[in-house]
Amino acid sequence: MKKMICAVWLSGMLLIQAAALPAMGELYAKSAALYAANGQELFSYNADEPLQPASVTKVMTMLLAMEALERGEVTLDTMITGSEYACSMGGTQIWLEPGEQLTLDEMLKAIAVGSANDCAVAVAEHLAGTEAAFVERMNQRAVELGCTNTTFINANGLDGMGEKTMTTAHDIALISCELLKHPKILDYTGIWMDSIRGGTFSLANTNKMLKSYQGLTGLKTGYISEAGYCISASAERDGLSLVAVVMAAPTKENRMADATALLNYGFANFTSYTPPADLLTPVPVKLGRTDVVQPVMQGGTSFIVEKEMAQQLETHLELPESISAPVQAGQQLGSLTVTGGGQTLLEVPLVAAEAVEALSVPELFLSLLGSLCGAK
């Protein structure tokens, strides 16, 4: 049963679709989802049905690696050693030798481009000590992202001994959107062909849509016989970034056709809207160490609307004339409401972009003294 999402909570935003969109054509896959990269769900088809993701599992492995990079726990030059266990993985691999070392940069390239199962486990072991500890982090991060039907059993998506990784199109989309917050990953997922080991080992991307779909940037394909053909495909055109997830398509061709149909549907019917930059004027702060505080939209600076509505939008602000210090970063100052076609499309809190400390007693005295002196 296919459905269009009529209301979506997103980081404090309430988006209500105002008009009926064209119907999506029939899909080959068992499950699919289309998301904007900011996390807004635009279309779903059995998106909460638990299925095996195969190597699309690696979007979470890559996410945890990118987050470790951001925290400074590793660098791209960090050497990763292949253990006996990592080197024993089957399926797609680069045939790591026990004790062989590659940089994290090469490991990420092998994972993103060549879907290397051995490298995924080697990176997991380096980041968490053991793959089992890394899997705990994977499942914890999934919960944090709002994934409600996901259980990872390893870092690469292969079947285990009587166990299977299970997830949904909805959950893979959430993980993929989070991964896209790390633009560096696109330097890997967008590679068509490259090499590692000083040019002696060639890699060809498993995602053939990189050559066939305009604007495609990644992210990951997957296949094992029991899972069927899966993909999390990211693409960007005209400032609109989308993620299309296809689960359990019968063939490679069906997988590509479904992902293409989802992305085409998104680019044809939706657009990114950013309120005018001069709309959010600073709010004066009383008795603060700075005179004003800048309001910003909670959850980002733009949102996704139907193209037909984009020209009919009206924006309404509610902000105080002033606010008293102290002000906390992220403190709600007011709200922004966007309407179109006689309906409310968006309600989003406006929050303080930065903290403003209150003047201390001596500072208040000096401020008062300065005011009195200036008045004479």
Which segments are poorly predicted (pLDDT under 50) over 5 or more consecutive residues?
1-19
Number of strands: 21
User: Which range best describes the helical content: under 10%, 10-25%, 25-40%, 40-55%, 55-70% or over 70%?
Assistant: 25-40%
Count up the helices.
10
Shape: globular
Oligomer designation: single chain
Q: Tell me what portion of residues adopts beta-strand conformation.
A: 25-35%
Mean pLDDT value: 90
Main β-sheet description: 6 strands, antiparallel
Main-sheet strand order equals 1-5-4-12-11-10
What structural category arises from helix and sheet content?
alpha+beta
End-to-end C-alpha gap: 77 Å
Radius of gyration from the alpha-carbon trace, in angstroms = 24 Å
What would the keywords be for this entry?
376 residues, 10 helices, alpha+beta, six-stranded antiparallel sheet, disordered N terminus, 21 strands
What would you note in describing this structure?
The protein has 376 residues and is an alpha+beta fold. Helices cover 28% and strands 28% of the residues. It has ten helices and 21 strands. It has a six-stranded antiparallel beta sheet, with helices on both faces. Strands 2, 3, 16, 18, 20 and 21 form a six-stranded antiparallel beta sheet that branches. Strands 15-14-19 form a three-stranded mixed beta sheet, with no helix packed on it. The longest helix is centred in the C-terminal third of the chain and has 18 residues, at 252-269.
